[in-house]
Amino acid sequence: MKKYILLLSLIIAALTSFSQIHVKEGSFHKIDGYVMLDKMDHLDDNNVPMALIKISTENISAEERRKMTFKGNLATYFDVQFEPSEIHLYLSTTATFLEIHHPDYGKTEYWLPEDLCDFCGYELVVVSDYKTERVVEEKLVYVNVPTMGEMKDAVGMNEPKRDFFVSVNYACTDIGISSYGITFGEFGFHPSPTKSKKLNWYINLMSNFNFKTISDLECDKDGLVDGKTHYYTGNVEKIRHSFLLGLMFKVAGPVYLKAGVGVGHYNIAWEDTNKYLVKNVDYSDNGVDANAGLMLKLGKLNASFDVVTTNLNNLEFKLGLGVNL
């Protein structure tokens, strides 16, 4: 048993020695009031705006600082400029993590704690624990081996927070039927070492809360029932219900594209002199609802605009405003 404990101690010590560089805890933050004066010089190969991270170092000389290299997501572009006292790292706003490498100090991976915005500035501190002289003491050490859960907590491997949102909606069709509803969904993991933040989901439920029963009678836009004149009181009932499931794709920064499909119906019914609701088939439809739209993630808030159609026969315009949980 003592042999295994000693072997475990040596393995942990060896693994620790491989990386002598890390990001200082809590050092990453957005620079308030920062303005990028040379914006047009900092677009990536796809002409997408970049962000700037000013990286300062501790226990790393200017000469050693120039040896540092950076990697990120497959779609991340970098432009590295070495200043006298810090590194200016321009990178795509789609980046979610950085791999910082030094040939002598090893490497570290850092998951960005928030989405980068176009032409914004941030600050970050990188620290080296590298020591030129080491004193190795041969000593048998007995340790309490932590549980798997404690080890995950220590290195930040536990499941990250899920980034949900909720919003309230108002919609109106091109024939004047208004409805109200709610949308619930997820922007993705924040941050996520195992899942992409690009593709996300949402569900939407809309209604004008009119659940009156329509009779089997049907009329056209002129009020004729089976081609014959019918008499009405002048009261009109408007009914709208819709349920949608959809996907969201992150385009850049706070902008997401939305596309969804579901079921829905809208009805215009005229009340006749016998108090029956007669469905106007020229202004009613039910079947497949489809929508497309945009969503903006604005800090703790979100806003959206959607266009919805039922069986491609009408248009409905929908606005949303909500909070990110």
Structural shape: elongated
**Biggest sheet, spatial arrangement of strands:** 10-11-12-14-15-17-18-19
Characterize the largest beta sheet: strand count, sense, and whether it forms a barrel.
8 strands, antiparallel, barrel
CATH topology of the largest domain: Porin
Structural class: mainly beta
The total number of structural domains is 2
Question: If helices are DSSP runs of H or I spanning 4 or more residues, what is the number of helices?
Answer: 3
CATH architectural name of the largest domain: Beta Barrel
Estimated helix fraction: under 10%
- What number is the mean pLDDT? 85
Order of helices and strands: HEEEHEEEEEEHEEEEEEEEEE
- CATH C-level class of the largest domain: Mainly Beta
Our measurement of the CA-to-CA distance between the termini, rounded to an integer number of angstroms, reads: 48 Å
What would you say this structure looks like, in words?
- This protein has helices at residues 2-18, 62-65, 148-155, and strands spanning 21-23, 29-30, 50-58, 69-71, 78-82, 87-92, 97-102, 106-111, 121-128, 162-173, 178-189, 199-207, 218-219, 232-252, 255-272, 277-280, 285-298, 301-310, 316-324.
- It is mainly β and 325 residues long.
- It folds into 2 domains: 2-9 and 20-153, no CATH class; 162-324, Beta Barrel (Porin), CATH 2.40.160.20.
- Strands 10-11-12-14-15-17-18-19 form an 8-stranded antiparallel β-barrel. Strands 1, 2, 3, 5, 6 and 9 form a 6-stranded mixed beta sheet that branches.
- The chain is elongated and about 95 Å long.
- Residues 10-17, 132-139 and 191-196 have low confidence and may be disordered.
